[in-house]
Structure formats: structure tokens, C-alpha cells
Specification:
- This protein is α/β, with parallel strands linked by helices and about 400 residues long.
- The protein contains eleven helices and 17 strands.
- Strands 1, 2, 3, 6, 7, 14, 15, 16 and 17 form a nine-stranded mixed β-sheet that branches. Strands 8-9-10-11-13-12 form a six-stranded mixed β-sheet, covered by helices on one side. The protein has a two-stranded parallel ribbon with strand order 4-5.
- The longest helix has 23 residues, at about 1-25.
Length: about 400
């Protein structure tokens, strides 16, 4: 029976490999040793081969030296915003909301990761208070149901809209995140919660996640100063950031991620403050830096850092992941990127970034039966889609070209 199962598994992989080689996969892959090469098929074959390897281990077959490694895939996206056109589009005849269809086409890319992270750039509010978009976001809880359906595990909450609904909104949002089973970091309901770091342990790898914002649109002035000490993580207090990094590292994390809400809105290149913060975070021991807030995609780089003990390591910096979901009219705010980072923990060599891949995305707005709709699309899959109107066809090709051009990873 074991032999038959193994043959079946291998047959499935061979069939999938043929499909991948024929162009049925749409995941552009960038590896560190070949940083400028797009190689989507290789990534998918490795995922499938890993499934077989895990099955053999479960059946007590011989374990090779390579199988002693621990591997972990982290998937990250940028800003998840909720403007009122999106809320109205999700309203059902009975007055409830359903956002799940927004994520149908990208669910596959999100749910297969070990840890999937996004920036929740809205507060959640109860129906009796009503909902609102820009400039003070308050959204239905059903968006959390949809994000869970799509495959998200962690939502970072430190951004310039964290205090849009003041103390009540921040606390209610975290209550709802608890209700839907999300892990989160960046805001807190108490000093004890602020000091409790988010550490996710998967596949024998401990990942620490921190989240900071530049500010909260002046709303901090309307909040109790006592509560403000713990409610939102701001990065303007460098000493606090360094203390947080040292504190979470002391909890034996293998990998440290920082989600930074920074930069100039709608700018395609990082500013000097972003670059300065990257230097500080990298030198203090952060391994991956994901940026949000510009609402457009900015470059990625692999930064070579020499640590105090003389050792070298690569730090991945994605200056801005763009908009994963939003309804903005400013140019280029309809584009984002799903970034996948594969981590390997070697018994002898320690932890390292093994692979990086990305999936360019586009927010498709359409009208159906007289009602506006939204879908997040993986662009590669729809480059030759013949049912778009002329404007959409042109836009999706432009987004593909611009996103793949800007996301070069420097060795």
C-alpha cells in the first residue's frame, strides 16, 4: 500500500510538472542565486516535491540529511483598505456583507504559505455605529471573515488609521480580531498586551513580528495620553524600537520581521527616512522588512549587512508592497504584490533566506447587473484574458510591466 501511495504521489507531481511547463502556473519566481530570473515552475515543483518528502517521513522511511532542515514559507501583502465603494459592493440583499469573492483568484497564493501577513488599514466597527471610508475608516466585521477565508494568519495594525475611531475603535478592532482567530501586532489594549511580543512558531522555526507607524493622522491628540503610551507602536521613538527588538530576540526567535508604515504616499522610490530606518533595523537584527503606506509598489532589495560580531547576513527589504485592496483614484494605487519568502533552518548553518518570489496583483473594478464589484487578480494569469474591456486589458499589461520592472532584487 505504501508503494502504491508513493507511485500515486509521484504520478501526480509529474502531471503537475507537465502542466506547469506548459504555462498553467502564474507565479514569477526570483531566487537569491539567480536574482533577476523569473522561474515560476521551479517553485511549484519544489512545493510538490516537499509534499512527497513529508509523506515519506510520516511513513518512517529513511530521512536524508537534507530532510533534517526546517523550512518555512512566509507570504506578505501590503495595505488592506476599505473605502465605501467596496463596502457598498459587498452589501447583500439582507443588509449583511460578503467580501469573500474579492479574494477568490488570490486565495491559492495566500493559503498555501505557513504564515500569511497583511496590513489591516481600517478599524472594525459595530453595525449600530455605521461604516465610513476615508478619512476615518470604520468597516464591517465581515471583512475579517473574508480575510480568514482568503488565508491570512497575521494582521499588523500599526498604521496612520489605527486611531480613526479613537480608543473604542482600536479596542473593538482587536476584540474582533480575537473573535476571528487572527494573530496581530502593532496596537494594544493594555501595557501588558503591548509588552507581549508576537512570536509565531511553525515547522520548528520561531518567527518574531513587529509593527510600527510614523503617526496616526493627528488623532493621537484626541486620545488619553495615558492610553497612548501603549495603544499604538510609533517608530519615532528609536530607543523603544531598539528595546523591542532586543526584547523579542531574547525570546529565542530564529527570524525577525518588521512591518513599517512609512514613506511618502504615491512615491515610487523610498525616501531618506525609509533608508535610515532600514540601516537601523538591519543593524539591530531584523531579517525581513516589509513596508506599507505609499499605496504604490516600491523596489525590493537584498541588503548585505555586517553584524557587530563580524558575521554577514542578507536582509530582505520590500520598501512598499503597494495596495492589496483599496478603491483609490490616484495613479498606480490599483497595484500591489504578494511576496513569498522561503526560510531554511539548517542544523549546522543556522537560519537563512533561501528563496524569494512575488506575484504582481491588480485590483479589478467591474460592473455587474448594475452593481460595482472588486476582485484582486494575480496579473500573470490574466495577461491574455480576452473578456476584459479595452481599458482594463491595457491597464493590466501596464501594471505587469511596471511591477516586474520595479521589483528587481539586488544581490
Amino acid at each position: 500500500m505504501l508503494y502504491k501511495n508513493l507511485i500515486y504521489k509521484i504520478s501526480v507531481v509529474l502531471i503537475i510538472a507537465v502542466l506547469l511547463l506548459s504555462g498553467c502556473s502564474f507565479l514569477p519566481e526570483i531566487t537569491i542565486d539567480r536574482p533577476l530570473q523569473i522561474d515560476e515552475d521551479d517553485y511549484n515543483r519544489i512545493i510538490e516535491a516537499g509534499d512527497i518528502q513529508e509523506e515519506l517521513t510520516d511513513d518512517n522511511e529513511s530521512i536524508t540529511e537534507q530532510e533534517q532542515e526546517s523550512r518555512l514559507t512566509i507570504t506578505a501583502v501590503g495595505d488592506i483598505m476599505m473605502h465605501m465603494p467596496q463596502v457598498r459592493a459587498a452589501m447583500q440583499p439582507d443588509g449583511s456583507y460578503d467580501f469573500r469573492s474579492v479574494f477568490h483568484e488570490v486565495k491559492y497564493y495566500l493559503e498555501r504559505a505557513d504564515i500569511t501577513i497583511g496590513n489591516l488599514e481600517t478599524t472594525i466597527g459595530p453595525p449600530e455605529k455605521g461604516y465610513s471610508g476615508y478619512p476615518r475608516f470604520r468597516s464591517p466585521e465581515e471583512i475579517l471573515e473574508a480575510l480568514k477565508y482568503a488565508g491570512f494568519d497575521v494582521l499588523v495594525t500599526a498604521n496612520n488609521h489605527s486611531l480613526d475611531a479613537l480608543e473604542f475603535g482600536l479596542e473593538y478592532t482587536l476584540d474582533e480580531l480575537d473573535k476571528y482567530g487572527f494573530m496581530y501586532t502593532g496596537t494594544a489594549r493594555s501595557i501588558e498586551e503591548k509588552n507581549k511580543h508576537l512570536i509565531v512558531e511553525k515547522n520548528n522555526i520561531r518567527v518574531g513580528i513587529l509593527s510600527y507607524t510614523y503617526g496616526t493622522n493627528g488623532m493621537e491628540a484626541a486620545v488619553s495620553q495615558e492610553k497612548l503610551k501603549y495603544m499604538v507602536n510609533y517608530y519615532n521613538d528609536y530607543n523603544q524600537v531598539v528595546n523591542d527588538i532586543n526584547s523579542i530576540k531574547a525570546e529565542s526567535v530564529d527570524l525577525l520581521i518588521a512591518y513599517m508604515h512609512w514613506g511618502y504616499e504615491y512615491h515610487r522610490v523610498p525616501n531618506n527616512e525609509q533608508k535610515k530606518l532600514v540601516e537601523m533595523l538591519a543593524n539591530e537584527g531584523v531579517d525581513i522588512i516589509f513596508g506599507c503606506h505609499p499605496h504604490v509598489v516600491q523596489p525590493m532589495e537584498l541588503k548585505r549587512v555586517i553584524m557587530e560580531d563580524g558575521t554577514e547576513k542578507n536582509v530582505l527589504v520590500a520598501y512598499s508592497l503597494g495596495n492589496f485592496l483599496a478603491s483609490q483614484k490616484t495613479p498606480n494605487t490599483d497595484a500591489g504584490v504578494i511576496v513569498n519568502v522561503e526560510i531554511v533552518k539548517d542544523p549546522d548553518k543556522g537560519i537563512s533566506i533561501d528563496r524569494i518570489s512575488y506575484v504582481p496583483t491588480w485590483i479589478y473594478k467591474y460592473e455587474q447587473n448594475g452593481k460595482l464589484g472588486f476582485r484582486v487578480l494575480p496579473i500573470r494569469k490574466y495577461l491574455d484574458y480576452e473578456e476584459f474591456d479595452e481599458e482594463s486589458t491595457k491597464r493590466i499589461k501596464t501594471v505587469w510591466e511596471e511591477t516586474t520592472d520595479i521589483l528587481d532584487i539586488e544581490p
